[in-house]
Amino acid sequence: MPRTSSTQIQPIEWHDGVLHIIDQTLLPAEARYIETSDYRAVAAAIRRLAVRGAPLIGIAAAYGVTLAARGGDSMTAAAEELAATRPTAVNLRWAIERVLAATGGDAALVEAEAIRMHQEQIASDVRSGELGAALIADGATVLTHCNTGSLATGGIGSALGVVKTAYWQGKRISVLVDETRPLLQGARLTAWELAREGIPHELIVDSAAAGLIARGRVQAIVVGADRIAANGDAANKVGTYGLALAAQAHGVPFYVVAPASTIDARTARGSDIVIEERDGDEVTSFASARTAPDGTAARNPAFDVTPAHLITAIISERGVLRAPYPRTIAAMTQPAAAAR
Ligand code: MRU
Fold this sequence. Notes:
Blueprint: E1 12-15, E2 18-22, E3 33-36, H1 39-47, H2 54-71, H3 75-83, H4 90-103, H5 107-133, E4 141-144, H6 150-153, H7 159-168, E5 174-178, H8 185-197, E6 201-204, H9 209-214, E7 220-223, E8 227-229, E9 234-237, H10 240-249, E10 254-257, E11 263-264, H11 281-284, E12 285-286, E13 289-290, E14 303-306, E15 313-316, E16 319-321, H12 325-333, H13 335-339
Parallel strand pairs: 4-5, 4-7, 5-6, 7-10, 8-11, 10-15
Antiparallel strand pairs: 1-2, 2-3, 8-9, 9-14, 12-13, 15-16
Helix pairs in contact: 1-2, 2-3, 2-4, 2-5, 3-4, 4-5, 5-7
C-alpha cells in the first residue's frame, strides 16, 4: 500500500492566510520556513528557487494569488508577476489560470481553489507512484536526476514518488542520484529525502551517469518534467536529454513521470518550449565559492528537451502513455476530440 510517510517533509503549508514555504536554498543544512502574507515574497521565493519543482511552484503561485486577493492587491497584477517568475514549467501558468478562472475574483473562492489544487497534487503523486512502481523490477537500480520528490510537488513526489512507492511495496531497489549541477538539487535535496525515508542510494556526479549506464549498472531511469509538449517532447532539468540518449544506446527504459497538468496541449513540440537561462554565476561558482577565473563567460540553460522518441513511457495520475504520443496524449487531454 503506498503511503505518505511520517518522515515526509511539508515544503509548503497554508495556515490562516499565512503561507509557510521551506527555503530550499538552505537545505540540507537548515530547514527554515519563509512565512509571508505578501504575494511579492512568493514571487521572489520562486525566482531564487527557494521554492522549486514544476508542480510546487504552481501551488505556491496559486497561494500567491490568494494572498493578493486577501490583501486587496490586484489579482491580475499578482498573476502577471507570479507567472513571469520562471518561463519553462507550464504548471505555473496552468495553476494561475485555474485559480483565476474558477473564482471570478472572490478571495474565498481563490483560497478554496488553491487548497483543492494542493490536495489534488498529493493524490496525483500517490496514483502516478503506483502506476510507475509497477514498471520497476525487484532488485533494480534506478537512476534519477534533479529533485522530483516532496520538495518538488508537496506530495510524495513524481519520479521520486515512483521510487518511494516501489520501495514501500517491498521491492529491493537502490537509487543512483545525479548531483545535478549547477544548483545540486540531487545532492542537496534528493539525497536528503531518500535518507529520511531510509531508501538505499548513492550520489554520483552527473558525468558518471553515462558510463554506469553503459556498464549495466542501471535498470531504469525515472525523471520528472517541467513541460510536456503535445507531441511528447519533454522539457526537464538540464542533463536529462543526455541521460535519455545514453538510455537508448544501452537499452535502458527511460520514464518521465509528471502530473497531467505538466502536459501542455498548447505547445506543439519541444522546440516551442522556452528554456530558462539563468545567471552564469551559478556555473562559474560551486556552493558560492568561485571556481572559474574572474571574467569567464558562462552559458546556463536550466532545462533541456528530451525528444519523444527517447521516452519509453510518460506516467501521470491518469495513466501510462506510450508512443505514438501525439495520439495517446490527445486521447488523454481531449478524449472527445480524439474519438472523432
Ligand atoms: O529548476 P528546478 O529545480 O525547479 O527544476 C526542477 C526540475 O527540473 C524537476 O525535475 C521538474 O520540475 C519536475 S518536479 C516534479
